[in-house]
Specification:
Blueprint (H helix, E strand, L loop, with lengths): L3 H4 L15 H17 L14 E2 L11 E7 L2 E4 L2 E3 L1 H10 L7 E5 L6 H14 L3 E4 L2 E2 L2 H6 L9
Parallel strand pairs: 1-7, 2-5, 5-6
Antiparallel strand pairs: 2-3, 3-4
Helix pairs in contact: 3-4
Length: 155
């Protein structure tokens, strides 16, 4: 004996539809995506990327250099393979551990403050370098249309 028979509730019952619910499918796909992302190894190149300033000359004049200084910030500079700070380079010069000769090539991005550049020039002179050269990228076609970077444009 059934409970629906006395009240004739069977005629009000309907069979469930034969639809596929996609919510669990999305859950499974999301879990698979997370496992693939978290399980893969992302390899990043070590070091910092420095955007060099752009000059308008197609072939900028260059001289032979004996030392290279890569400037990222006052707290991170690379001088001939040694990671130093601005203050650390001052101490190295005072102790005589940073003898310089010839031309120092400074590789820095376009946001290098002028005051810091002047400080680097003073330190290079104290270290014994005869000249300071700043590295720059060749002008790109998009930079020519925009007029180049301010301060590096030549009339």
């Amino acid at each position: 004996m059934s409970l629906t028979r006395p009240l004739e509730l069977e005629r009000h019952l309907s069979s469930p539809g034969k639809r596929l619910d996609v919510a669990p499918l999305f859950d499974v796909l999301l879990i698979c995506l997370m496992l693939m992302l978290l399980g893969s190894r992302f390899v990043a190149a070590p070091g910092e990327t420095i955007a060099l300033p752009v000059v308008q000359n197609s072939a900028p004049a260059g001289v032979a250099t004996l030392a290279v200084l890569t400037y990222k910030s006052d707290e991170m500079m690379i001088l001939d393979g040694r990671v130093v700070t601005l203050e650390g380079w001052k101490r190295l010069i005072e102790r005589g551990e940073s003898p310089g000769e010839g031309v120092l090539l400074v590789k820095a991005d376009a946001e290098l403050p002028l005051q810091t550049l002047l400080s680097l020039a003073d330190l290079a002179r104290e270290a014994g370098y005869t000249a300071l050269q700043i590295a720059a990228n060749s002008e790109q076609p998009t930079a020519r249309a925009q007029g180049g970077i301010e301060g590096l444009s030549q009339p």
